[in-house]
Write a structure and sequence with these properties.
This protein has 644 residues and is an alpha/beta fold. 39% of the residues lie in helices and 22% in strands. The strands form 7 sheets. Strands 4-3-5-6-7 form a 5-stranded parallel sheet, sandwiched between helices. The model has no long low-confidence stretch (mean pLDDT 92).
Length: 644
């Protein structure tokens, strides 16, 4: 394979210069970039960077929301044989400082005033941040700091550089090698400091080619880009697959307008982590609770048919004429309008990954005709290890090995991977690289799993998180937590049980869903802390937990891991408080230490416990939230064998 990302861009510009490459919504109007315009702007960006002294081997940090110029900046840096280093846009300045220092950053692409302010703050202690390029000029008119320039100014510098150095761009692109590092993506840091994952052009292009092959991705597809550009999944879909398949990427105006923008674009190819699909279903549930009795009856009747035959119809299997007719009517009156409200009317392929998805949630979307599938991978594998193929979708697996990937299970149950997408190395960390690549070249994923008779992989949990109860039963906390989070009332759950006699749980309620329920009950409340403390809310959460316990009792080997006691936390778990990673993964060890008094109280059988917690506010200030939490028992069930 001789292709690199800049060469793929030039190839699209040569073959289909006027076709749509990108769209961006600004001030309510969609703006379009042709492939030729995209290639021109990358060339000008590269020339501007070269004129400022950016050279091969340099790293440039990129931080901001999903914007065409942000994505094009990746290609401009790569065109000079430099390496883009994206950072999470919602990270505070102190979190960014580690990445900027570790990657030896002197150039930064900062989308807007918010990100520029963070960089200028960091520059006081990191004078090496010499050049800051911004895209959105709003609020920056009176900024006069040295080295701060706009994208438009960078374009002009690039055009001038091109006149002075004709042919420089093509010469630079021709020198790029497929095995050159194309991006450094920092891990989320669930344990310790983040590590920079070095991925090459060939690894991401190989992963993108495999996805294109499995799902028939093509130029006519539309993708909406709204997830953090620093996340490996967005890099695979919005850059690698965009350039390999040649479809159109669409950047929404803001997070607040995403729903409207999705309905306007009607993406045919869509990706979202489970929490987004959970949010969609929660919204549907709230709407139906407020609907008229007639609409509630229509919804329930249509969903009964959908749950029975919807997935079979989606997979092209044989379904009786009567059921097919009922499903068609349901599609006209219920599923079609429902998908339209969610912006999923034109979906041909939808994926979820990043965390396990509850089977009931998965079944819901497939039953209404959304071709939702799972993929599996890590930052170290370009988010590309397993894919679910059409007609071979199982609710409890993440699919089979993707093209170009070898899978095997180690003696300790850990999933091992070798193939096109595996990282080249960790940046400046040969010790860490040696730890995750075994003597046969397999990457150690850190996940525990099993491969079934059809060659499909089922992930049990993170290998380090899988423990045992004191009685010897396997304890997979993430598996239980995902079952709990299927309920729209539960936003987050954290389970404890390793080396203990029983399983205990912390619960975060979903403020919107539970608040809506409380209003219908005539239950007054004064904010999250007050709502979470209501006895009625505790009882509602208990009912959800007991339903999960009944489910666990029917699963082989899981009956002993039913939740015996629980509490509803007085605050939402938050990345700013270090309780979740920026990709919203639970930092279980940190939470266990931070809330040790609550964990101990659950296991000691106390009926309540006072807690005072320090929190960070959006403006950077810190404060304290305190409450006396009620601790409650949940009914558990004897083990039963599920019906065949």
């Amino acid at each position: 394979m001789t292709m690199t990302f800049p060469r793929l861009l030039l190839e699209h510009a040569r073959q289909r210069p006027s076709e749509h490459a990108m769209r961006e919504k600004e001030y309510g109007i969609w703006q379009t970039w042709s492939w030729q315009r995209a290639a021109d702007e990358v060339r000008w960006m590269a020339g501007g960077l070269a004129s400022l002294g950016f050279q091969a081997g340099h790293n440039m940090a990129i931080v901001g929301n999903n914007r065409p110029h942000l994505y094009l900046s990746f290609l401009a840096v790569q065109s000079l044989r430099g390496i883009p280093v994206p950072m999470y846009q919602d990270a505070v300045a102190s979190e960014m400082a580690f990445v900027l220092s570790d990657a030896d950053i002197h150039f930064v692409f900062a989308e807007d005033q918010e990100q520029v302010d963070k960089m200028l703050e960091l520059r006081e202690t990191m004078p090496g941040l010499a050049h800051i390029i911004y895209d959105d000029p709003r609020g920056l008119r009176n900024y006069s700091e040295q080295g701060l320039i706009s994208v438009d100014e960078l374009f002009e510098l690039g055009r001038q550089y091109e006149q002075q150095h004709p042919g420089f761009y093509q010469q630079s692109v021709d020198q790029i090698q497929p095995d050159d590092v194309s991006v450094i993506l920092y891990t989320s840091g669930t344990t310790g400091k983040p590590k920079g994952v070095c991925q090459t052009h060939s690894s991401f292009i190989g992963a993108a080619e495999g996805g294109k092959q499995v799902d028939g991705l093509r130029p006519g597809d539309d993708m909406i880009c709204y997830l953090p550009p620093a996340w490996v999944g967005d890099h695979l879909f919005s850059i690698a697959q965009w350039l390999v398949a040649g479809f159109t990427i669409n950047c929404p105006e803001s997070a607040e307008t995403l729903g409207i923008d999705m309905r306007e674009i009607g993406p045919s190819y869509y990706f979202a982590p489970p929490r987004v699909f959970e949010g969609m279903l929660t919204s549907v549930s709230i709407r139906m609770e407020d609907a008229s009795k007639l609409k509630q009856w229509m919804y329930k009747s249509a969903m009964n048919v959908a749950q029975r035959v919807g997935s079979d119809i989606l997979d092209g299997k044989s379904v009786g004429m009567g059921d097919r007719l009922k499903y068609t009517l349901g599609n006209w009156f219920v599923f079609g309008p429902l998908k339209n409200v969610m912006g999923l009317s034109r979906i041909r392929v939808a994926y979820t990954a990043g965390a396990a998805i509850g089977p009931d949630l998965f079944r819901f979307f497939r039953s209404i005709g959304v071709n939702l599938k799972q993929l599996y991978g890590q930052t170290e594998t370009c988010a590309y290890v397993c894919l679910q193929k059409n007609g071979r979708v199982k609710l409890n697996t993440v699919g089979e090995a993707a093209p170009g990937i070898e899978l095997k299970i180690a003696d300790n149950g850990e999933v091992l991977v070798k193939g096109v997408s595996v990282l080249k190395e960790y940046y400046k960390r040969p010790d860490a690289t040696a730890e995750v690549i075994d003597e046969n070249g397999y990457f150690k994923t850190g996940d525990a799993g099993v491969i079934d008779a059809d060659g499909q992989l089922r992930i049990i949990d993170r290998a380090k998180d899988v423990g045992k109860l004191a009685g010897g039963a396997m304890f997979a906390p993430n598996y239980i937590e995902n079952k709990l989070k299927f309920f729209p009332q539960i936003k987050e759950a954290v389970c404890f049980g390793h080396d203990r006699d029983q399983v205990m749980a912390f619960i975060n309620i979903d403020y919107e869903a539970v608040g809506n329920w409380a209003e219908r009950q005539g239950l007054p409340y004064g904010g999250y802390v007050d709502l979470a403390a209501k006895p009625q809310v505790l009882e509602m959460v208990r009912e959800c937990i007991e339903k999960v316990n009944a489910d666990l009792a029917r699963e082989e080997g899981m009956a002993d891991t039913q939740v015996a006691r629980f509490l509803v936390l007085h605050k939402e778990l938050d990345p700013d408080d270090d309780e979740l990673t920026r990709t919203r993964k639970v930092r279980r060890g940190f939470i266990s230490d931070k809330y040790k008094v609550l964990v101990d109280a659950l296991y000691e059988g106390k009926p309540e416990q006072f807690i005072e917690t320090q929190v960070k506010f959006d403006d950077g200030r810190t404060g304290k939230v305190s409450a006396t939490l009620k601790l409650a028992d949940a009914k558990t069930f004897p083990a039963t064998r599920a019906a065949a």
